[in-house]
Amino acid sequence: MNETLRLGTIWGVRVGVNWSVLVIFTLLLVGLAAGNLPALSPDRSPVTYAVAGTAAAIVFFLSLLAHELAHALVAQREGIEVEGITLWLFGGVARLTGEAATPGADLRVAGVGPIVSLLLGAVFGTLAIAAAWLGVDTLLVGVLMWLGLINVVLAVFNLVPAAPLDGGRILRALLWWRTGDRTKAAVSAARAGRGFGFLLVVVGISSVLFLPGIGLLWFALIGWFIASAASAEEQQARIQHSLQGLTVADVMTHDPLTVPPDLPVARLLDEFVLRHRHSAYPVTDGWGRPLGLVTLDRIRNLEADQRAAVPVSHIAAGKGEVAVADPTELLIDVLPRLSQGDRRILVVRDGFLVGLVTATDVTRTLEIGDLRG
Ligand SMILES: [Zn+2]
Questions:
Q1: Apex CA 148: angle with CA 74 and CA 169, to 5°?
Q2: How far apart (Å, rounded) are the C-alpha atoms in residues 161 and 165?
């Protein structure tokens, strides 16, 4: 769910929306204007229902934003990096790029969202009761009641102990706290998420078969999303576990074969590529300082008749374009760099090239980790 439109920044947290938010907004609006509101306050004009429905839907999205903002702000306070908040088809998501350091921090970040939704539910509910008691317009009472109810529903649904829902994170924090094993806790929460997701899919699909209408089909869609997000989380937890504690130096290819910048591409092919099995060669100066990286892809992009005349430096990715890491950095921290640009990381110590990390190095480490159990 990428950000389609950036709305702005609230307390240092970037907020944006994905186009798919329009789908849920429209569904809510139609449901309100044609169903909920006429039932709560009959005999108004369609325009009145549409205006009240739009206002209610907007306030609902602000409530959703408050829920996600609470996650993001607590995460920031716990030292976890926050990329931003995106509102989309299934509500909101606070994108955190780091992990909680302790079970307590994990619990606080997860728990605050549902607490905010419950509080909002209580506030809107109280306002609805007060408005009804004061004899205010029934349409306003209806909107307030709906807002109170939907915030409570949001909190309760999110508290289901199934990753990636907040309840799943709370379950993970509690299991982590009890067993001291974050990976096992994350895997259990993810499995619960997959189970709950499939359950929703079954409920959604059977509702279409046995009940009139397609209202519950939405369940199937949400269930499918939860199940696939949970599977991804389980895999992520396993990868993190396998790579735990490993440094860049542990997995890198030491002292990789390097090439000088003025070597013609034709000689690079004859003397390196055709003789060795590597798919990337760091370019270094006479002292072993990195200047860039040349890959088979980059050679392929050069016309064959130019290979004799063009030097390696001409086609290589320059220093600023290639990902760099220190050998003492944790592998888990540098992994995102492997998906950038030429998909390799130059390992540099004190200005000199000491190694190269490729996706193959990481895959091999994961496979060996699997063999070790
Ligand atoms: Zn939440």
A1: 35
A2: 7
The sheet with strand 82-88 has its strands ordered as 5-10, 13-17, 82-88, 91-96
Residue found under tokens 């728990």: 111
Q: What is the distance in A from the centroid of ligand 1 to the CA of 90?
A: 11
- What's the 87 CA to ligand 1 centre distance in angstroms? 12
Please state, in angstroms and rounded to a whole number, the distance separating the CA atoms of residues 73 and 13: 8
Q: Are 185 and 202 in contact (CB under 8 A)?
A: no
Domains and CATH numbers, the chain: 5-159 (no CATH), 248-372 (3.10.580.10)
Using one digit for the tens of pLDDT, what is the confidence trace for 257-296?
Answer: 999 999 999 999 999 888 888 889 999 998 999 999 999 9
d(C-alpha 306, C-alpha 175), whole Å: 61
Taking the C-alpha atoms of residue 20 and residue 68, their distance in angstroms, rounded to an integer, is: 17
329 catalytic, yes or no? Answer: no
In the reported structure, the alpha carbon of residue 13 is separated from the centroid of ligand 1 by a whole-number distance in angstroms of: 15
Q: Which residues are placed with Cβ below 5 angstroms of ligand 1, an ion?
A: 113, 166
Tokens found for residue 160: 């289901």
Counting Cα atoms < 13 Å in the Cβ hemisphere of 270 gives 8
- Element at 323 (helix H, strand E): strand 323-325
Alpha-carbon distances, residue 226 vs 199, 201, 202, 207, 234 (angstroms): 10, 10, 13, 19, 12
**pTM greater than 0.90:** no
